[in-house]
Amino acid sequence: MALRAVVFDYGMVLSNPPYLPAREQLKLISGLTEDQLEQHYWTDRHAYDRGDLTGLQFWQNLVTAAELTLTAEQIDDLNRHDATMWTTINPEMLEWRNELIQSGLKTAVLSNMGDSVLESIEQKFAWINDFDVLVWSYQIRMAKPQPEIYEYLLQKLGTLPEETLFLDDKLENIEAAHRLGMLGIQFSTLDRLREDLISAGLDAFLPLP
Questions:
Q1: Is the pLDDT of residue 108 over 80?
Q2: Closest by alpha carbon to 23, among 37, 13, 10, 11?
Q3: According to the 3-state scheme, what is the secondary structure of 55-74?
Q4: What does pLDDT average to over the chain?
Q5: For the sheet containing 106-111, what is the strand order?
Q6: Is the pTM of this model over 0.85?
Q7: What residues contact 100, with CB distance under 8 A and at least 6 apart?
Q8: Phi then psi dihedrals of residue 7, to 5 deg
């Protein structure tokens, strides 16, 4: 069956690695070391992505858990710098995405994403609205690797699982897509993606990056 759609994760696929100056601001404002920040940062991140918490609530929880004494303004700054940290782009992937459109394929984004980060992305990147379908986890209170979020995506796209290729940097999210019958490739680099597309025989259905 022919390929009809390519779905991108946002973080570390459409985006480059986090913006380091913003990451440094998180450490500077909080006073946490890199290891301490990393430990606390991921504790509630999935809940934030799933929409259980807003960006401000996420940082308020982190400040409480880390036993920090910060002002409301400082917490707001943490939330703002966190959003900035993820507002980066991978221009080569965006160029490839344009080639996919020109070849007649649908394109979509399926991303675990919190409200403040998405607001920053939408303010800076007008191109984000050019995808056929956008699925942001917090807006529908589901997050990868829940199977329901993939089913929601397929319904919005109007494609069958076997007609849909999903790219994500996290293996667990690719494995969840595979369990539903979707095609999936774990993304790391453009060169590796090209090799994986050829190995899967998908170069017969889409232009190579």
A1: yes
A2: 37
A3: HHHHHHHHHHHCCCCCCHHH
A4: 97
A5: 133-136, 106-111, 5-8, 164-168, 183-186
A6: yes
A7: 6, 107, 206, 207
A8: -115, 130
